[in-house]
Every structure is written in C-alpha cells, then in structure tokens.
Known about the structure:
Pfam family, one: Tim17
Number of helices: 8
Oligomer: single chain
GO cellular component, one term: peroxisomal membrane
Largest sheet: none
InterPro entries: Pmp4
Protein name: PXMP4 protein
Organism: Pelecanoides urinatrix (Common diving petrel)
Number of domains: 3
Amino acid sequence: MAGGGDALRALLRAANALLQQRRYRAALAVLKGFRNGAVYGAKIRAPHALVMTFLFKSGSLREKLKSIAQATYTHSRNLAYFVFTYKGLMALQSRLQGKKIPFHSFFAACIGGWLVFGENNPINSQIIMYLLSRILFGLSRLAVEKGYVPQPKQDPFPLVAALVWGTVLWLFEYHRQTLQPSLQSSMTYLYDDSNVWHDVSDFLIYNKRTDSK
Length: 213
C-alpha cells in the first residue's frame, strides 16, 4: 500500500511540474478550456432542462430523465468542443503571426461556431438566441462609447422593454409558429392556459384537470 501511495505522489508531482512548464501553456490552456466548457455546459443546461421538462413535457419519468440527460450532454459536449476549437485556433494564429490581433478572435469563433453550433437543433438554437440578444445590447453600448451614436438623454431601456414585449406578444398571438418551441410552451402556459378552467381545482391549484370530468 505504501508503495502505491508513493507512486501516486510521484505522479502528482510530475503532473504539477508539467503544468508549470511555460512551453506547454498554450496547449494546456486548450485542454482546460475543453474541461471548463464541459463543466459549464452541464451546470447551465441540467437545471434548465430539469425545470422545462417537468413543467411542459409529458411522458414517463424515465423518458423525462432521458431527455434531461440528453440535453445536458449535448450542451456540455458542444460547449467543450467550441472552447477547445476556439482556443486552439487562437493559439495557432498567434504562433503563426507572432502576436495576437483582434481579428484572430473573430475568425476563430466563426470557425468554431460553424463547426460546432452549425446544426439547427433546439439546443444550438437556444444558445444562439441567448448570445444574439446580448450581442445587440453589447453593440449598442459600444456604438455609444465610440461616439457613433449620441449618448441618450434618458435611459432607453423602458422603450426597449416596451418594444420587445409588444413584438413578442404580437408574434405569439398572430404568428406563433415563428417563435422558438420552448418560448411557445412558456407563453401558452401563461396566456392561453389561463383562459381555461372548470372549477376551483384548475383555477387555483392546477393548471389543467387530469381527470375526465
């Protein structure tokens, strides 16, 4: 047993020594990026999939758990692959040109986005829409910082909130098929299901009656 413990400690010392080597730093950063992408993707997707599945999806417990596991795995895998691709291409470009320039980030992310998130499926669609909303806010702020757009005299957020909610409810009411399925499910629960009840049980306690009365 002591010999096994000594071997393990020696292995850990060797691993820690390797991690301190500057010449391997770029490659190790790519590997840790893969690790962080996988962990972060699982942390983000698992609770979201759990809530959405049990709120809106029908089926057996086994089917629901399988759906949660599949969504979590897909999100975790895709984010890990993307971070690995992005950081690898960043390191390669920097090595080839001898320095890091802003275009490297854009190019590496474009390639990663095409390869990893290019398939149009529910998970990728949600991630892209999440990013798109933040990109629009970020570009708006950047335009003001750079002086391309004058600084608003009043906070424009109330107007943005009004336009966003006005547009999404108009789409839901009259062009529902254009909205992402999970958003349709959420809005159906909020705005359609609240129009239907039979007695106090499905008015206050449950959303829908489960019996055949």
